Amino acid sequence: MPTRSVFFISDGTGITAETFGNAILAQFEMKARHVRLPFVDSADKAHQAVRQINHAAQIEGNKPIVFTTLVNTEVLDVIKAGCHGMLLDMFATFVEPLEKELAVKSNHRVGRFSDASKSQEYDDRIEAINFSLSHDDGQSNRDLAGADVILVGVSRSGKTPTSLYLAMQYGLKAANYPLIPEDFERRELPPALAAHRKKIFGLTIAPERLAQIRNERRPNSRYAELANCREEIHQAEAMMRREGIRWLSTTTKSIEEIATTILQEIRPERLVY
């Protein structure tokens, strides 16, 4: 199958165009060359984008696919008039019909964070990221009452990336704690977590996968031995059952799937989109 170029054009960061475009492209078996063109906010830049698109069309012998979230109509008109690609204008597809249905004109704002300095939601998101970083891997017990969710599990089971994703994507303050042999010997959760049981969610993982991940970090160590991984996982899952903690296996799950499950189970009151 020949490679087809896919362009993501925006007068902002292009995150919306790329996220939505990739979700659509995932439905098709195809080879794609991704070209990101953010901050196309002038006619000159639009003409440059058109030249790139048309060059790709000429070289590859087929139409590039062009996802755009351009707000500036002057810039968009340049793209529409000149490009030899298949243009998918997300605002025309979704925003304009909503304007008609709601009888309200949209803000036509460039980019999700264009007014970040005035956005309380943006400030909340930054605060959540800082919280998650300072409460990563049990670094701090301070202000756990302010956490929206506390993830527990053995080392390398996916707690840190999930915590950061929850903070960046949803503005949630996510702490995470590793379950260690001392906890298994006591047969109870770390003392600092006892008062926050309702916020706790557990992550586990197949021992074979855990051993593989740990071997990449510390090859040929007891930490990465399959037998040790099996024992830690067994002890962690037993503790979660005893403590009545909700949990899932991250073995075959993406970060997005893990986060969605956590949101369904924990149902935090505060979410930022």
Verbal overview:
With 273 residues, the chain is α/β, with parallel strands linked by helices. Helix content is 46%, strand content 14%. The protein contains ten helices and eight strands. It has helices at 15-25, 43-60, 73-82, 90-102, 120-134, 159-170, 181-186, 207-217, 226-243, 255-266, and strands at residues 4-9, 32-37, 65-68, 86-89, 149-153, 174-178, 200-204, 246-249. The strands form two sheets. Strands 2-1-3-4 form a four-stranded parallel sheet, sandwiched between helices. Strands 6-5-7-8 form a four-stranded parallel sheet, sandwiched between helices. The longest helix is centred in the N-terminal third of the chain and has 18 residues, at 43-60. It starts with a strand and ends in a 7-residue tail after the last helix. The relative contact order is 0.10.
The largest beta-sheet arranges its strands as 2-1-3-4
Number of strands: 8
Enumerate how many helices there are, as a single number. 10
User: In percent terms, what proportion of residues is strand?
Assistant: 5-15%
The dominant shape is elongated
Biggest β-sheet strands, sense, barrel: 4 strands, parallel
Mean pLDDT metric: 90
Helix content: 40-55%
- Helix and strand string, N-terminal first? EHEHEHEHHEHEHEHHEH
Oligomer: single chain
What's the N-to-C terminus distance? 37 Å
Low-confidence spans: pLDDT under 50, at least 5 residues? none
Taking Cα atoms only, what radius of gyration do you get, to the nearest Å?
A: 24 Å
Output the structural class: alpha/beta
